[in-house]
């Protein structure tokens, strides 16, 4: 095969069209939210097979990743500044991202190209928890009209977070040695984060290692009250071996994470053990006909839930252990083929196999209902997906570009026979009856999912670009939505990733969700897109067979604190708007350069058949950031405001939350080999409640609250003084 160092002439010319160049330009200002990280800085690095950019593609720049990593151990929070993004509050390492009101499994989340499945009924170990913020090299989000090459089996968009790229020696450098160590301390919860990385490389071979550790105690809210069971500890590490040739690159990675504990104040349980090991190999190459990108991966996860010590019932006997094991294997291969000067074809094929077993050992010390046998929640669960797609991008003129894509994902799920604790037949637990009914069913389901994307982009002038499109996106249910089988109060209350202390029961007959989205983006900017920019994106989505939840009964006989619900299909519709902008206020003043950026988001949604509000939708929210830079000094003043949450799903006991505004300060000074960072989060120690934070179950129970009183909303973190240092060598 004829391999070469750069992209083909047709591909290079296509990329030089004015419209594409305009959309790929960095956002203006000092802390851009749409600036891509630089490519691998080596002359013979292969050109990566691209996912086409859309108007809603946002890439967190390296500077923003470093700044946010000094304030959090939760990688999902690196994305929180992007338009349309909000977060379900979980543990200190495990928030669940939401894009335009659709979160968790409705988003295609790729960590180093791997779509990691959740192996916990409360999703305590989501995909982004397996890569520490300090190890992130690139974080990218595509919202709404998502190209089919960016992933299937999702309806909200795609998040891709990659580790840092391999480091190679510069031409003529010989042996390259380098690395860095960093430590960050945050006063609230006495959080301490340590990270280090080192590499040795020639021009063609690179060996790198990275290690990280994070630990925090229970945090305090704005009133100084300790939030029980919010502490955590985690370790992680990776080793990377990379080879490059004339237009080729092969990257081998292996590593793992270990989390001995992570508290979840809005859940009935805590994470008391999570260990993962992973390995992957990725090849990228340029050829005369185009470029090729292929990856194979494997993952093993062992997970355990129980009660953390310090809770009122944590010391009762052996607690209530719940164990799970998941294995995942798959591959993805894609090619980008220029078809002349104006056309590009992208084709790809993916396979992913996810298996899950979850069992709850008998624990007669808690209650006689939890024994004498083992409760099998998911037995031999399988979720196998194979996807194939084709995508055509054409530059009709230097100003006019279209993108069309078609994708099929076949998803096959299954579960083996289950059992309860084999006790309490005929009582409110119904373990025997529920298990018998589940085991008697045909549990194999085959979903043939079809995705379609049609997108048009037009550059109206040097200062205005428009984009509009339609996408049909499909997602099959996860294993818990289909196969969590017990209607008993205790067992069902262990299922659910919403932090609401409701009980959830699966539904074998669930259909895949099909989202039909219309969206348009108007982008105004200066001719070079370096001084100012404003983006406005209205959108509308109609979701056929949206997976909501229908009430079965009250939880433990107390409907005011919890409800047993069964996952069920309902048609739903959503609409909203995202507005973002940025401007360079002043350049080369005596105090440096100043920039201003901000965003506003609003979304509404309801079920079509009964008008019920969709669950966990963020109210109107906005953010404003003033940046300053002078030489090695940089600083930022951030104001985040959220309206009160009054649009509620009352069937699921969703709590109201008042509006609030938070002020954060950050600063850093960068020498050649040393960077110092400082910050104050929640400057005025505001008492606030995240609208998607769920209920404060742990503190209410710790204080002896009965189930006859509604659980309050979970309070956010109070003021924290942060300081960090990074030393490069």
Rg is: 25 Å
Global mean pLDDT: 89
Number of helices: 7
Largest sheet entry: 22 strands, antiparallel, barrel
Q: CATH superfamily of the largest domain, please? A: TonB-dependent receptor, beta-barrel domain
The second-level CATH architecture of the largest domain is Beta Barrel
What would you call the structural class?
mainly beta
Query: If you consult CATH, what is the topology of the largest domain?
Result: Maltoporin, Chain A
CATH class of the largest domain: Mainly Beta
The beta-strand count equals: 30
Please give the alpha-carbon distance between the first and last residues.
40 Å
Helix content: under 10%
Number of domain modules:
2
Taken from the alpha-carbon principal axes, the silhouette is globular
* β-strand amount: over 45%
Low-confidence stretches: 1-47, 313-317
InterPro entries: Beta-barrel_TonB (IPR000531), Beta-barrel_TonB_sf (IPR036942), Plug_dom (IPR012910), Plug_dom_sf (IPR037066), TonB-dep_rcpt-like (IPR039426)
Family: Belongs to the TonB-dependent receptor family.
Main location: membrane
Domain TonB-dependent receptor plug: 54-158
What does this 3D model show about the protein?
It is a single chain. The chain is mostly beta strands. It has two domains: 154 residues, TonB-dependent receptor, plug domain (Ferric Hydroxamate Uptake Protein, Chain A, domain 1, Beta Complex); 552 residues, Maltoporin, Chain A (Beta Barrel). It is 6% helix and 50% strand. The chain contains seven helices and 30 strands. A hairpin with a 3-residue loop joins strand 11 and strand 12.
